[in-house]
Amino acid sequence: MSDPLIALIETIRQIVPLSETDTTLIKSVFQPYRLKKGEYFVQQGQVCQHVGFIHTGLVRYFVNQDGDEKIYDFGLENDFVCDYESFLPQRPCRRTIQAIEESDLLVISLSNLQRLFAQLTHGERFGRVAIEQIFVKTIGQLVSLYTDAPELRYQAFLENYPTLSTRITQYHIASYVGVKPQSLSRIRARWAGKHYSRLSSPE
Amino acid sequence: MSDPLIALIETIRQIVPLSETDTTLIKSVFQPYRLKKGEYFVQQGQVCQHVGFIHTGLVRYFVNQDGDEKIYDFGLENDFVCDYESFLPQRPCRRTIQAIEESDLLVISLSNLQRLFAQLTHGERFGRVAIEQIFVKTIGQLVSLYTDAPELRYQAFLENYPTLSTRITQYHIASYVGVKPQSLSRIRARWAGKHYSRLSSPE
């Protein structure tokens, strides 16, 4: 298994160039953190204290809507994980992030993240671009919960998470798509039918 | 009426210090833009081409949910306005931003904004902090649409927009709160009652 710090540094290097001093700083401000299956990265009502980098494992993000858990996103290997709405202003979460599989993370506190922004050669640029990417993705996931029909959300699930359907339950997929598990089966059947017709079409 | 450029520069200066060269650059990359009442800053399906700074006026942000317009935010004087989910990756909007009042803006294109991030003394820091603030606010507005009961959303409306209730229609307030206009009247009556009881309470 690869070194989580190397994976983290490669992920940051996709955004900004890093000097040797930069990588030494990165290694000094992240700490290893393990979540068992079912444990929470952060729960609704708590203040989110860290940004995590997922080396191995899988988490789900959900909001509680009238007692129903609505999954709106998943976090996989090489993703950053955080409830920024809580973390940045340090106020209680309105969402929960929970490990679906045992997950090995590297985590950084707010004060160390601010040190990273200030002290990395291109720290502020890293901060800006990383938060822009996360912003666009998170807004997209939340708007999609409102505006996209279940079929479209199932299609997006398959496209965004091609390897996930064998790692999560039908309940999780149905919650992400926004339907009851029995409706998901009908969507899957229709989807399989369409897909087959398209493949066998003579044009 | 004050100079919109002075208001813009003061707003940016609340985030980062600005030199004289910085303010000259800011003046050169923003253009005046007027929206008539009812005109769109950007419509669902279009690509958002600008970030705007609202000097005077008022806009609403809404998503279309099964044919219903759901207002989730307003933009007022001294706010930045943009659909970042469309603007940053330059893909079609899933939301609409429309002027409720005639609005005078200063707008900047994506290429000029990137110039600003690169060339202002603390341009990257400005970009990071500004996008963090907008991210936290936008996520909050969207999550609130799901998780908060109408009473709580009405309370948040009064707190976040204390001067707005005389500038917008009952329809707009009801859409923001997430109820039909007739339900809003009942919420307002209950709210007024509670408020009165609290004021006249003997403790």
Automatic annotation (TrEMBL), chains A, B:
CDD domains reported for this sequence: CAP_ED (cd00038)
One Pfam family linked to the record: cNMP_binding
Residues covered by the Cyclic nucleotide-binding domain: 33-117
Cited InterPro entries: cNMP-bd_dom, cNMP-bd_dom_sf, RmlC-like_jellyroll
Protein name (record): Crp/Fnr family transcriptional regulator
Organism lineage: Bacteria, Pseudomonadati, Bacteroidota, Cytophagia, Cytophagales
